[in-house]
Every structure is written in structure tokens, then in C-alpha cells.
Specification:
There is one protein chain. By secondary structure, the chain is mainly β. It has two domains: 106 residues, no CATH class; 86 residues, no CATH class. It has no helices and 18 strands. A hairpin with a 2-residue loop joins strand 7 and strand 8. It is elongated, with a radius of gyration of 25 Å.
Length: 212
């Protein structure tokens, strides 16, 4: 296991300026005793303090996933059930589809672009497949269906891991770890997040000098 040291640093114009000489041994880097907190490093960051090398599974709720499907020869679009088994939030070409309200029916055979049994309205098959009808055969349609999203955060040698937003992917407003739910706006704000540097098998964590 890496040795770990924690040192305070001061920040000037987003760069390290001076290191404060006092150093203390630590196994994690909480902020004011909070093991989950937020900071800003160009974009917002959520920091998870923990045992070096451990993994933390963070549930980010549901994230809309968009795919394209080619319409079948009878104008049908078949949508397989998601892992959750529910179609909440389903949209086809931007139109919301309430799968729970669809009638149950079988998918008939298609012959020369015509169903052998008429299907004039959208329906759901006995195996929970949603079928959208009256589309143009051979065209592409957009399928949007929220999917559960989770991320595994590996705690570094300094005792923390993080999830960082990007210019195109903001952080969710809420998330959960196990049975504990968090709201990002309510997290303790550390200002700047800690840093971790590893050299010669020794991981050194740096926390802002402004931290208490």
C-alpha cells in the first residue's frame, strides 16, 4: 500500500504558489469531516473521500439514451424492453409514448409490406416489446429511452476519488451511494478540490490552504 501524506497548498491564478511546510499522515481527505463534497476545477467536481484503492458505486439516476432504428417493411418499429423492464420516458421521433397505456397484441407476419392481421395503432406484445406502427418502411427513427446510469469511482492513493463535469456533460442534480441520497446543491462546498501526486510509491495529497 502506498504511503500517504497530506499537505496544504495555496492557489494563485489557478496554479500552485507555495506549499505550507506542515504535513500530516492521513488515510482519506474529507472536507470539514464530510466524506462527500463538491468543488470547482474549471468545471464542478464531486469528491468522495475513502480508503485508498477502494471502489465507490455512484448511481446517477436515469440518463436519456438515444438510438436510431430502421423501420420494418410493414412500417413497424420494434422496441425491446430495457433492463429495468419499464419504458418510462420513451420517445419515438420526439413524441412521448405511454407504454403502460398500450393495448397488448401479437405481432403478425408481414407480407409485401402489409401485416396479415391489421394493426392500426401502437401496441405491446406479450413479451413486453413495444411496437410502433404507421412509420415509413426503410426510414430511420429516433428512439429515446432513459436508462439507469451508474459510475464506479476508484479512490486514489491519497484517499479520494471524484466525478467531474465537462463542457457537454453536467453533473446530475442528485445521486446516491447505496441507500443514501445526495443533492449536489446541498453538498459542502470545498471551493477547490484536493490534488494527488504519486512519486516513488508515495502518494501525497494537497489540500487548499483556505481549507479549515
Amino acid at each position: 500500500m502506498n504511503a500517504f501524506q497530506k499537505t496544504k497548498f495555496a492557489i494563485a491564478t489557478a496554479a500552485l504558489s507555495t506549499l505550507i511546510a506542515t504535513t500530516e499522515t492521513a488515510l482519506a481527505i474529507p472536507y470539514n469531516s464530510a466524506t462527500v463534497y463538491k468543488g470547482m476545477d474549471t468545471f464542478q467536481v464531486i469528491v468522495f473521500s475513502g480508503t485508498p484503492g477502494s471502489k465507490i458505486t455512484v448511481s446517477l439516476g436515469s440518463v436519456a439514451k438515444t438510438t436510431a432504428k430502421i423501420v420494418g417493411s410493414c412500417g413497424e418499429v420494434r422496441i425491446s424492453p430495457p433492463a429495468s423492464g419499464v419504458f418510462t420516458g420513451l420517445k419515438v421521433d420526439g413524441t412521448a409514448i405511454d407504454a403502460s397505456a398500450l393495448p397488448s397484441n401479437t405481432l403478425p407476419a408481414c407480407n409485401n409490406g402489409v401485416f396479415l392481421e391489421p394493426r392500426s395503432a401502437n401496441f405491446k406484445t406479450p413479451n413486453n416489446e413495444v411496437v410502433i406502427v404507421n412509420k415509413t418502411a426503410g426510414s430511420a427513427v429516433s428512439i429515446e429511452l432513459p436508462q439507469p446510469s451508474a459510475r464506479t469511482v476508484t479512490v486514489n492513493g491519497c484517499g479520494f476519488g471524484q466525478i467531474k463535469a465537462t463542457a457537454t456533460t453536467p453533473l446530475p442534480s442528485t445521486f446516491s451511494i447505496g441507500n443514501t441520497n445526495y443533492t449536489v446543491s446541498s453538498l459542502p462546498d470545498a471551493g477547490k478540490p484536493p490534488l494527488c501526486r504519486t512519486a516513488n510509491g508515495i502518494s501525497t495529497g494537497y489540500v487548499p490552504a483556505s481549507w479549515p
